[in-house]
């Protein structure tokens, strides 16, 4: 069936005080705002976490800790196995206990396996790193990876069940990692890693407790029937997630290899600041996925999500475009040289928002193949163009590659919309 949007979209509805006040009671907006606040708060806590860590710990300890945490992020990425999307798509359709229990059981087991693989690879690739020589550290790494998996899936369960306020509180509790840096400082690099682990432990315990009390009973078992039903959807989303995350994880390494450490730092900070705006369309996209999975009108939800995203994004983009140099200067003067890149990333937020809303629409419509193709195109374009343009234009080239990639994606989305008669 063709998906045809309603065109009587009245912008003044979203600009009126009455409409804004009424957003709190609307499922789409409520979920979106709680997710946006949670992600913004998490980003802010991360910023303060590293400021305090830099003052309490030696430079070498901070450097090793960032490597450990990056390894943990890769383990988390590979451990989802697509259940992060399946739990949202199937929770309204299947038995909640089976969906959540299976998602927890499978992804936690996967995190233990991938955590062990990561340790073996690190011991082979970095034999001089003393951290991996202690079996206790390796066990701690696997434990933290498992806690991270539980916390992540718990967050998706809250969002899928329209309890985004619990998702917000879960992220708030992880802020305990900031004060934990002080008493754990005597442990060195393990103090930083331990503080992160304490945050995941708190979030995991909160998730398990709240889910048991307000959603369903969690059992340590996997339901084969649910796995069979969701296998195709989960596996394709898993492949799509890997294709999506790979370029972002590889870009800092690419810039470092083509330029130098200083340029890589400028790129990382400017990119991180510029992409903060993307929390907004990403949050609305996830909320659109939730509402569509619960049977709400997809076309109306899409226009509402798009209108609200634009209304909130516009002032944020303008601030970054005109005052981003001052924000970069708050860190160190050298980072101001990344202002040009920051402006490009900020302006590209609008085509990225188009992508962020297209993905949940296709997930609700079970058109996951198109998402895989789109993310494969994005991966090839972004890495290929970045390699060519960073060589020629420095870190600005990474911005050009980012913008061109998403302009091509917008053309793709427009072609799909015409082909399937959305408009």
TrEMBL record:
Keyword Transmembrane helix: yes
Any single GO CC term annotated in Swiss-Prot or TrEMBL for this entry: plasma membrane
Cell compartment(s), UniProt: Cell membrane
Keyword Transmembrane helix: yes
Membrane topology listed for this record: Multi-pass membrane protein
Sequence intervals crossing the membrane: 33-52, 64-83, 103-126, 138-160, 180-208, 236-255, 267-290, 302-324, 344-364, 376-394, 400-418
Source domain of life: Archaea
Keywords tagged on the record: Cell membrane, Membrane, Transmembrane, Transmembrane helix
Protein's name in the database: Membrane protein
